[in-house]
């Protein structure tokens, strides 16, 4: 287990316990989902948070500008504490860990479905059924459209992956014919 993973686990557990005490677990979970998604989408933010030259208070001011209107006071104070402890370099991992621990507590299984085009309701229901069958938990689908997939899908449930994409099938055929 890496140092960032240990830090993320500790901070996530603390935030979840605090938010439960304050009866704000759902709101804080939504806040950390937003932080996690923002870090996922913004390479610039990830680089900023990992940069050891930029001081924690400056990083916090930037985060405050980004999230102040969209997250709760509890989450904003949490970001300030993480900045004061000089741990913003692990913020992305902390936010992801909050989501993971929340899902574990609530019996929710997060699954990522990558497809070439957006899913219709029938396909969403089918993927949800598969996730529930595989995990035994309530599914939470995250859809990602990947234009590099010509067709098919890639479904990731925890540490399991079902790759039924045309690109993978073509690679497999190419390998079989080249051997």
Topology of helices and strands:
Layout: H1 3-21, H2 25-41, H3 43-50, H4 56-67, H5 73-84, H6 91-106, E1 108-115, H7 121-135, E2 138-145, E3 153-157, E4 160-163, H8 166-178
Parallel strand pairs: 1-2
Antiparallel strand pairs: 1-3, 3-4
Summarize the structure.
The protein has 179 residues and is an alpha+beta fold. The chain folds into two domains: 3-104, Peroxidase, domain 1 (Orthogonal Bundle); 108-178, Glutaredoxin, CATH 3.40.30. It has eight helices and four strands, in the order ααααααβαβββα.
Write structural notes for this entry.
There is one protein chain. The radius of gyration is 19 Å and the shape is globular. 63% of the residues lie in helices and 14% in strands. It has a 4-stranded mixed beta sheet, with helices on both faces. The protein has 2 domains: 102 residues, Peroxidase, domain 1; 71 residues, Glutaredoxin, CATH 3.40.30. With 179 residues, the protein is α+β, with helices and mostly antiparallel strands. It contains 8 helices and 4 strands, in the order H-H-H-H-H-H-E-H-E-E-E-H.
